[in-house]
Design goal:
binds zinc ion; single chain; 7-stranded parallel β-sheet; 520 residues; hydrolase; binds N-(aminocarbonyl)-beta-alanine
Amino acid sequence: VDPTEADSLIEADTAVPVNERFLTQRILIKGGRVVNSDYSFDADVYCEDGIIRQVGKDLITPGGATIIEANGKLVMPGGIDTHTHFQMPFMGTVSADDFYQGTKAALAGGTTMIMDFVIPQKGESLLSAYEKWRSWADPKVCCDYSLHMAVTWWGDKVSQEMEVLTKDKGVNSFKTFMAYKDVFMLNDTELYHTFNRCKELRALAQVHAENGDLIAETSKKMLELGITGPEGHEMCRPEEVEAEAVNRAICIASQTSVPLYVVKVMSKSSANIIAAARKKGHIVFGEPIAASLACNGTHYWNKCWRHAAGYVLGPPLRPDTTTPGYLMDMLANDELQLTGTDNCTFNSNQKAMGKDDFTKIPNGVNGVEDRMSVIWEKGVHTGKIDPCRYVAVTSTNAAKIFNIYPRKGVIQVGSDADIVVWDPDQTRTISKDTHHQAVDFNIFEGMECHGVPVAVVCQGRLVVDEGVMHVTQGAGRFIPNPVNSPTCYSKIKRRDELNQPKAVEREAYEGPVYDPSQKI
Ligand code: URP
Ligand code: ZN
Ligand code: ZN
């Protein structure tokens, strides 16, 4: 976007007039504590033209710079949400947060980059789906973004297009679905081929892990039993149905020696399987989401249908109320590595498409705006993780896994000026009435969170300043994710050299061979 044109699109979200403070390309964040994933220290941070130019004590204020006073506050890399579905056509409707409203909400909450999924229909060209998603996102995104590609069918064309996507289109991750039978689901053979191709291209294989065949059968059974409400959604896909698929996905990935990324870890059992596989040396990453770290599945039994339906997503939240705390403990100990949201929102009238049949409730929840607060509250405020680990699981690990580090995910000279200034002493209460998302429901309604993003800098521009927002549609850029991420592939290269399968050299067998065509 031409910057002049972008400026003319600036939206004043409040009565505060657009002023120089929001337009300047020079920002000095003064007197804060810089927190990176490995180390925190007191320093000023100076940004110019979208890049961090200086980090150090008592920096001189350059002329024309906007100053952000950060005394007593933390200065952290902006959040990276690895998992969103903005304006996604799904289950007969389109998710409510589009790329404008979704990225604006992200910024409001301290997330300065999102990763969305291109999801082609079965038989559809991956490249044309990619262009479609770019045409939806590019004019609307207020922050930087990148794209994962879903593989929903298999064939030579898919294999060829995967190569083009990695070489020319900035895609380094391919998501497969083990659920949504007849819609997005792949069988084991197709999973094997997709994972194998990811390996050849040095891309990352991603998986939505749930046994879709079982879900198709058990959901019919629930309906036959007269269970039509949202509780049926959980009851036909209990946690073993998620865990079985996680185990199978790791097994298939292991046969192709590809790094595997399990999206939205929702249960203790699947998290345990990921942790056990990592212990054995598998390169597998687990992504719990804001919902699974803060909510449990008892909501599905709520007497209010709309409330219960608001929590329907796949895999579902778990009725075991100790699940969120358990997943947070695993995130703290690097048994799980990073966080997304699976933000895929539907308004009441959209959810109501399934009022008489839970299988028709569009699956998805919010999270993009509240992830940073929720993880601070449930992780740092509870003493489970320290601020450095918080930065790792909300930003740095995503940048490393998707191979855009150190451009993103760290406060250091030369990195993109995507920064959140965090006040750990302020609190806010989450509500659908005050959030910036398009959706009319919030799964974290009423949660009081310590830690507030008091200022957000995105691409070197101040976009959030003490609750006032000035975002620019289309100002976000598409960020290509290069293949061969060292975090995913450096160990694999050496392992492949050592583990090359070899045939045993032996004398040819010379004895008799049974001929089945001969009568005995
Ligand atoms: O329930 C969910 N997660 N909806 C979005 C589609 C998906 O599975 O990622
Ligand atoms: Zn999914
Ligand atoms: Zn998803």
